[in-house]
Write a structure and sequence with these properties.
The protein contains 15 helices and nine strands. It is of the alpha+beta class. The protein folds into two domains: 348 residues, Phosphoglycerate mutase-like (Rossmann fold, 3-Layer(aba) Sandwich), CATH 3.40.50; 33 residues. Strands 1, 2, 5, 6, 7, 8 and 9 form a seven-stranded mixed beta sheet that branches. A two-stranded antiparallel sheet has the order 3-4. The longest helix is centred in the C-terminal third of the chain and has 41 residues.
């Protein structure tokens, strides 16, 4: 009797604790992959940055765990419903495949659509629509590597005392690694080569052999140095860098999405709004976004390894009101292959509350970014593009030019017809 009562109380507590959950935003790094940049020591390794089987399995297992965490006793349905889920990926195969692998665990076989009591697809799988845009337009999830201002901020870190001290202390190890792989990069290309070296080391696959003279000790040093290098070069403590690197995703989550959800739910508590949003990106992206959202990588000695997650939860306030939702941040940056993740909660330094950060505080922190986006000024004032006019002006210009070209063509056509007629007239008179 006592045991049964205990389980009943635990059920009620779980039900009550999750009843105020409004929405969940998940940002993940892709899974284990091939090296993306060539290492001259081996021509047998496929340098295409594509997802490995290990990466697919890791993401599928994590998706299964996240299903248990967020699709039971919450407002998020346990099967796919159009309008209640949103999935987006950067335009690369490894991020798209990672998201597909994740959703395979999140919506496992047997949860797919039915027609006349029979599954539409074999084994009852659930197809998932994934949103994506072309590489040159992807500033939402690739701001850290595509915005001129964020790129410049990263390049500037190579001349800082912190980087110089780090490099001088580890120069011999870096050179030993570069000698073995057959390339000596400079500047930001150092990050690319170290990422490829780390990919080979982590693969633990005979298809991806390490250089013959690379010891286990040196391999472990290479992994550590690669992580340290990333955390130094991306200045997530710099507000101006964060505006460029993560301003678009912050605006989408804390302004566009949450404001729209609150407005719709205030009008109708049963309104259909996305309760679960998922973004699939890269280590640079997740490192920048997490750091700019207030997670101190150096202090916590962490780095977003393959399939890492950043989770942003929106909850009602303590009185279950929607006016100023409470925001909870969680992460798992070293997810095991079996998907048994343990989300760790953190509070950004710019939030006042010791337990949760409210939406108004977050919107105040990112207000200048939101204003720049609303005024079509983000590309130039924050991101740093010099030749990107606002879309409306650009479209108007194209229309005007189009009309001018059409008019000139019409006039030239009339002139040509007139010349032909004059020539025929003169020829006819000559014949007479």
């Amino acid at each position: 009797m006592i045991i049964a009562l205990r389980y009943f109380l635990l059920f009620l507590c779980a039900k009550f604790a999750s009843a105020d959950l409004l929405s969940v935003h998940v940002i993940t790094r892709h899974g284990d992959k091939n090296p993306a940049y060539e290492l001259p020591y081996s021509d047998k390794i496929p340098y295409n940055g594509e997802l490995l089987r290990t990466g697919k399995q890791r993401l599928a297992n994590i998706g299964e765990t996240m299903r248990k965490l967020y699709l039971n006793n919450t407002p998020i349905p346990d099967h796919f419903e159009d309008g209640k889920f949103y999935f987006r990926s950067t335009p690369y195969s490894r991020t798209k495949e990672s998201l597909l692998s994740y959703t395979y665990g999140f919506f496992p076989p047997g949860t797919g659509p039915k027609l006349n009591e029979k599954f539409v697809f074999p084994e009852g799988i659930q197809p998932i629509p994934i949103h994506s845009v072309d590489e040159n337009s992807e500033t939402l999830l690739l701001g850290c590597s595509f915005c001129p201002n964020s790129l410049k901020a990263a390049v500037d870190q190579f001349s800082t005392p912190e980087f110089k001290t780090f490099w001088n202390n580890n120069k011999d190890t870096f050179n030993e690694i570069f000698d073995l792989v057959g390339v000596h990069p400079e500047g930001l290309h150092i990050l690319d080569i170290m990422d490829s070296v780390k990919s080979v080391i982590l693969s633990q696959d005979p298809k991806y052999p390490l250089p013959e003279k690379m010891t286990d000790e040196l391999a472990n040093k290479a992994k550590s140095l690669s992580n340290q290098l990333m955390k130094i070069v991306l200045p997530t403590w710099d507000k101006e860098y964060c505006k460029a690197a993560s301003g678009k995703i912050a605006n989408e989550i804390f302004f566009t999405n949450m404001n729209s959800d609150i407005y719709s739910l205030n009008k109708d508590k049963n309104a259909i709004v996305p309760r679960y949003r998922h973004y699939s990106c890269h280590d640079l992206s997740l490192l920048a976004i997490s750091g700019c959202f207030g997670l101190d990588m150096k202090e916590n000695d962490i780095f977003p390894e393959y399939a890492s997650l950043l989770v942003v939860e929106a909850h009602t306030d303590n009185e279950h009101n929607l006016s100023n939702p409470q925001i909870v941040f969680k992460y798992e940056f070293n997810p095991p292959l079996d998907g048994a993740i343990k989300l760790t909660e953190f509070v950004p330094s710019f939030c006042d509350s010791k337990k949760k950060c409210d939406l108004q505080t977050l919107q105040s922190y990112w207000k200048d970014v939101s204003n720049a986006i609303k005024s079509n000024d983000w590309d130039t004032s924050i991101c740093g593009f010099q030749t990107r006019p606002p879309p409306s002006k650009s479209n108007s210009s194209y229309l005007i030019v189009g009309f001018i070209v059409l008019a000139v063509s019409f006039v030239l056509c009339l002139v040509a017809i007139a010349l032909v007629m004059i020539r025929r007239y003169k020829h006819s008179k000559r014949c007479c």
